[in-house]
């Protein structure tokens, strides 16, 4: 039986008294790929933040959050198991740090390098390796605040993988990317699959869901309303109900697109 590496049970998150996540349970096995979809405000990003311990659920005797077999982590140790790419992280990295500094800072779960960060030759070799792998080496000396969205996303993908994490958490990672950049990004997801990473993807774009991602979780109003194989979940009736508009779906060569 495949090992369960993420176990979230009966998790609730409130902001200003309003439930953002409402009694959510979510399990992921090793090497399982999951795409989380749903309208704006459905709770997708909040769920991803729970998994990285950026936020915490309300206490309840029923609530569990067990990550990689442990219920309690210090955040820096947990981050060594996770590779994270999100719009929020890209905003934080929009600075005068150079591309290579952002990538190597992934070893320290920091944004760029500070005086107390001491990297080794091994760190530097790994940084160079992943920057070449994700076609980001030519950006090594470019400042983050001078990069396009696509260039910055390549740097963040390299940063997320520099420490060889078990799980990739990708939250709206294709936002603001043009068509060629999205194609390159899909190629990166396929590469992560070949490397044996577990992929958890929160997205609005069905075209971001590569064929290797076979499980779809649908969220609405802070709850999981559907969870199952892609062929069963990505249908026009269900998505029309969730989004409150008539949704049309097309599938070509294992890739999906949707429109209203």
Structure description:
The chain is α/β, with parallel strands linked by helices and 260 residues long. The chain folds into two domains: 1-77 and 165-172 and 193-260, Rossmann fold (3-Layer(aba) Sandwich), CATH 3.40.50.300; 82-164. The protein has helices at residues 44-51, 75-79, 87-92, 99-104, 121-133, 149-161, 179-194, 230-233, 236-243, and strands spanning 4-15, 18-29, 34-37, 64-67, 82-86, 167-171, 198-202, 215-220, 223-229, 248-252, 255-259. A six-stranded mixed beta sheet has the order 5-6-7-3-8-9, sandwiched between helices.
Tell me, what is the CATH class of the largest domain?
Alpha Beta
The CATH architecture designation of the largest domain is 3-Layer(aba) Sandwich
- Find the structural class using helix and strand composition: alpha/beta
Radius of gyration: 18 Å
Q: Round the mean pLDDT to the nearest integer and report it.
A: 94
The major pleated sheet works out as: 6 strands, mixed
GO molecular function: ATP binding; ATP hydrolysis activity
Protein name: ABC transporter related protein
Keywords: ATP-binding, Nucleotide-binding, Transport
InterPro entries: AAA+_ATPase, ABC_transporter-like_ATP-bd, Metal_Ion_Import_ABC, P-loop_NTPase
Quick rundown:
The protein has helices at residues 44-51, 75-79, 87-92, 99-104, 121-133, 149-161, 179-194, 230-233, 236-243, and strands spanning 4-15, 18-29, 34-37, 64-67, 82-86, 167-171, 198-202, 215-220, 223-229, 248-252, 255-259.
